[in-house]
Amino acid sequence: MNSSMVYKNKKPLLLFLTPAFIFMILYLYYPFLRNIYNSFMKIRGLGTGAKGVNEPFYENYVKLFTDSSMRTAVGNTFIMMGVTIVFQVGIALLLALLVDNISKGQQFFRTVYFFPIVISATALGLMFNLVFLYDTGMLNQLRLSLGASELLDFKDEAHALFTLMVPVVWQYIGFYFVIIVTGLNNISGDLYEAAAIDGASGLQRVWYITVPLLHNVLCTCLTLAITGALKVFDLPWVMFPNGMPVETTWLTGTYMYFQTFNAKDVDYASAIAIAIVVLGVVISQLANAIFKEKDY
After folding, report:
1. Three-class SS of residue 41?
2. Residue 41 pairs with which residues in a beta bridge?
C-alpha cells in the first residue's frame, strides 16, 4: 500500500482516538461540568445529595471574595508562584548549565537531581518534619550544637510559609532540570566552537547562545511552574494539616481539600475548584503572552 494512502485514511485515527476521548469525557469534562453545577447547590457532606439551590444561587462565589482564609490561600499561592519561578526554574537552569559543562559523571548528576521527583510527597513531608518540626527539629539541634542560644519556631507565622515552601521547591527542581538538560542537548556544539574561535568567553557563550536558544524551553518551564503552584497539595498538607498554624499556611489546593473533607462544605469547595481552574487558565494565558515562544 502506498504510504501516502495510509495518512489519507482517517478511520484508524478515529479507532485509536475514540477510547481516549471517551475517557476524557467521563473523567475530565463531566466532573468539571458537574463541579460547576455543585457550586450552586447546597451540599453539606461528601457523597450526600444536594438539599436544593443556595439562596442566592451565587452565594459561594460571593463567599470567595469575603472569606479571609481564601484570600490567604490565594496570596500564599501567588507567593508560591514567585518562589517556583525564581528558585525552582532558576536553580534548575544553573544546575543544568553546570552539568552540561562536565565531561564525566553527567548521568550520575542527572539521576541524583531527578531522584526527589520519584519519592512520595508523603515521605518527603515526614522527612522535612524531622528537619524542621519534630522534637525541635534536626536544624534546631544543629544550631544548638554550634552554640545558638535559642530555638527557632518553624511553625510560627514568621517561619511557617518558609518551612512549607522549602520542600516543595526542593522536590521539583529535578523536574525542570531534566527538561532544561534535554533542551541543552538539542543545541549544536558547532555554535559553541564557532563562538570560542571568535574569542567568546564561557559566560558570553552561555548568555548569547545558550539562554536565547533555551527561550522556548524556559517558557514551557515557567508556564508549568506557574500553573503547578495552583495545584500544590500533598506535601504541604502532610507538613501543615488543617492550615496549621491557622490561616497562615493555606494554599488554594489545601484549603479546597479542607472544605471538602473537614468542613464538609462541598459546594463551597466546588466553587474554590472552579476558582483554581479560572486562575490557572488566566495566569497561564498571561504567562504565554509575556513569555512568547520564538521561531529559530
Report:
1. strand
2. 53
Give 271-285 pLDDT, tens digit per residue.
999 999 999 889 888
The position carrying cell 519561578 is 85
Q: Residue 174: CB partners within 8 Å, gap ≥ 6?
A: 92, 113, 114, 115, 116, 117
Distance CA 78, CA 229 (A): 8
From the CA atom positions of the chain, what is the Rg in Å? 24
- What is the grid cell recorded at 89? 526554574
Nearest to 41 by CA among 57, 22, 19: 57
Contacts of 25 (CB under 8 A, 6+ apart): none
Q: What is the pTM of this model?
A: 0.85
What domains can be seen in the chain, in order of their start residue? 56-290 (1.10.3720.10)
Which of 259-277 are b and which e, b meaning 16 or more Cβ less than 10 Å from the residue's Cβ?
Answer: bbeeeebbbbbbbbbbbbe
Set of cell numbers at residue 216: 522556548
| Contact (Cβ atoms closer than 8 angstroms) between residue 213 and residue 296 | yes
Amino acid letter, 157: E
